[in-house]
Automatic annotation (TrEMBL):
This is GH15 family glucan-1,4-alpha-glucosidase. Residues 8-138 form the Trehalase-like N-terminal domain. It comes from Winogradskyella arenosi. One of its GO terms (molecular function) is hydrolase activity, hydrolyzing O-glycosyl compounds. InterPro entries: 6-hairpin_glycosidase_sf, 6hp_glycosidase-like_sf, GH15-like, Trehalase-like_N. GO terms for biological process: carbohydrate metabolic process.
């Protein structure tokens, strides 16, 4: 397996990654950021997994059930056919709350013939630290780790439990099930229960997706990306994760391995903006409450990221007993970037507040709190916008005056002015307009580089950076402005390699990147569309879509040469940008279609 060929299942509480051969190689319970119970993804030998062994005559096919987040892996050998249907239960209870327990169900569906398999059940609790012991009990199989940290995991099945644990050959003649859960069940589940959980979960996803608009083109990709973003949201608090994994490397064998199971204000706000455009109010409301709950004091500065339960301290440590994905160590949990200063987050958050007020103006419960936040954000920006920071790419050495950070400081004030007008609050407008003009002038004077004929990565630098492509998206500059068009062209010349983009070519703390940051290529394609190169944008977009895995999922990075997926997976950033680009390009018609339209209108 070379290409992160995994599917994701989840229930907005946790998630699991399942290989093409139906092996669960990553799962943390009871929450996304808990210690893993299966982590083969990060260590082939000791990480732990839950799969099935079949003889070499079987082929597999994997797909999502249409319009759901339920994953099916079909095993076929002539007439011998069975399916593994994987899902985490999620649906509305009669009282309106969600049923989303810390567990997953594997439904073995018998199709035909006499298929044979062995169960390979090998949980390794607490990131595979210490020894996990597994025992057969009357009602379940229990695994426990009581060396460093006491932890347990329960497996329920209607198959012979001893045969399961001993990996004995099982011949399927009917349907069966496995339920793996963090908690011992009060009532022993049976096949009918597993089937009912499946049907209810299926209905939940069908209903959820039905609220998403349909588009002329790329509808399938938009739907799959929207469901993936939903799977990366944590219902309990409203947090949105950057990705479901930790320490999947940006480059094989190197050390750019980070834990992404946290809520970055930037990533999450961009996700919420897209999801609210798609009409999903609840996820937007919950996220907004998450932010409000994080900011009890009016003068409290926002961190760039938080734990999914609102934790402010995210101490980073290495798990040296794990060899890492494809032996790319270290494996890190926690993320020291939480201490960094990145001034762009204020503009991104202000943008999402404005978006929510526009989309759901009659439906916002906390307008007063939002106005308080708006005033607080502008106050912080007015005090700090002239200061250097770490920038969007979180350089761990040295602060600079990054263009993107300055543009987003401008955005914070621009959107605050719009919010003030929406709420009928006029007393601050004159003061804020003066601040907005000061920041705009500063950017125009210092970020444009005559030699590069582009807005550059930082003030008085000749280095280019894909993030400046967002100047247009945030309304700082018109798409047809000569300086923006020139910037897009310069970035294409300098940062584009076979249709994929470098974030930048500046040597950072770890040297020149050898993989492309997926979101940057989407930004570039969007920019081509905006400056009028629609056909070129569509061709590049379709080429980029072909680099997804077999289920249409993207990670953080793509290797420039091999096009293999790298980095944490699935990546919220990549999928939100896919949706934005797809929506724009869904309106682009080919030359042939345009001619037909002209002929139709003439007749």
């Amino acid at each position: 397996m070379n290409n992160l060929d995994y599917g994701i299942i989840g229930n907005c509480r946790s998630a699991a990654l399942i290989s093409k051969e139906a092996s669960i190689d990553w799962c943390c319970l009871p929450k996304f950021d808990s210690a893993s119970v299966f982590a083969k993804l990060l260590d082939d030998n000791i990480g732990g997994s839950f799969g099935f062994k079949v003889d070499e005559g079987y082929s597999t096919d994997q797909f999502y059930q249409e319009n759901t987040a339920i994953l099916v892996t079909r095993f076929t050998k002539g007439n011998d056919v069975f399916e593994v249907i994987d899902f985490m239960p999620r649906y509305h209870k009669p009282n309106g709350d969600y049923h989303s327990p810390p567990e997953f169900i594997r439904y073995l569906k018998y199709i035909s013939g006499a298929p044979q398999l062995k169960v390979a059940y090998d949980p390794k609790l607490e990131y595979a630290k210490g020894v996990t012991s597994t025992y057969v009990k009357d009602d379940f199989i229990v695994s426990l780790n009581n060396e460093d940290t006491y932890d347990t995991l329960f497996l329920y099945t209607d198959l012979d439990k001893t045969a399961v644990i001993n990996a004995e050959t099982i011949t399927l003649e009917s349907d069966h099930f496995f339920l793996v859960g963090y908690n011992e069940k009060l009532f022993v589940p049976h096949l009918k229960y597993a089937s009912l959980e499946y049907e209810r979960t299926k209905v939940y996803w069908l209903n959820w997706l039905e609220r998403t608009p349909t588009y002329k083109k790329f509808n399938e990709q938009i739907s799959r990306s929207a469901m993936t973003l939903k799977l990366l949201s944590y219902d309990k608090t409203g947090a949105v994760l950057a990705a479901a994994t930790t320490s999947l490397p940006e480059t094989i064998g190197e050390v750019r391995n980070w834990d992404y199971r946290f809520c970055w204000i930037r990533d999450a706000s961009m996700v919420i903006k897209v999801m609210s455009q798609l009409g999903h109010k609840n996820i937007a409301r919950r996220y907004l409450q998450f932010i409000i709950d994080l900011m009890p004091d009016k003068d409290e500065k926002l961190q760039i990221m938080y734990g999914i339960s609102g934790e402010k301290k995210l101490t980073e440590e290495s798990l040296d007993h794990l060899s890492g994905y494809k032996n790319s160590s270290p494996v890190r949990v926690g993320n020291a970037a939480y201490m960094q200063k990145q001034n762009d987050i204020y503009g991104i958050l202000m943008d999402v507040i404005h978006q929510l007020l526009v989309n759901f103006s009659n439906d916002i419960d906390n307008g007063e709190e939002l106005w308080t936040m708006t005033k607080g954000i502008v106050w912080v920006v007015s005090k700090h916008w002239r200061e250097p920071d770490k920038g969007i790419w979180e350089f761990r050495e040295g602060d600079q005056h990054f263009t993107f950070s300055k543009v987003l400081c401008w955005t914070a004030v621009d959107k605050a002015l719009k919010v003030a007008q929406l709420l009928g609050k006029t007393s601050k407008i004159a003061k804020w307009e003066a601040l907005e003009q000061d920041i705009r002038q500063d950017i125009m004077d210092n970020a444009w580089n005559e030699k590069a004929q582009a807005f550059t990565q930082a003030y008085h630098s000749e280095d280019l950076d894909a993030s400046v492509l967002l100047m247009e998206s945030y309304g700082f500059i018109d798409a047809k402005h000569p300086k923006f068009v020139s910037t897009v062209k310069a970035i294409e010349r300098e940062l584009c390699y076979e249709g994929l983009l470098y974030r930048y070519k500046t040597k950072d703390d770890f040297g020149l990147p050898s993989s492309s940051f997926t979101i940057c290529t989407f930004w570039f394609i969007n920019s081509l569309y905006k400056i009028g190169e629609e056909q070129k944008a569509t061709e590049q977009f379709e080429k980029l879509l072909s680099y997804s895995n077999h289920l249409g999922l993207f990670s953080e990075d793509i290797d420039f040469k091999t096009k293999r997926l790298l980095g944490n997976f699935p990546q919220a950033y990549s999928h939100l940008a896919l949706i934005e680009t797809a929506i724009n390009l869904s309106n682009v018609t080919t030359a042939e279609e345009r001619v037909k339209t002209i002929i139709r209108t003439k007749h």
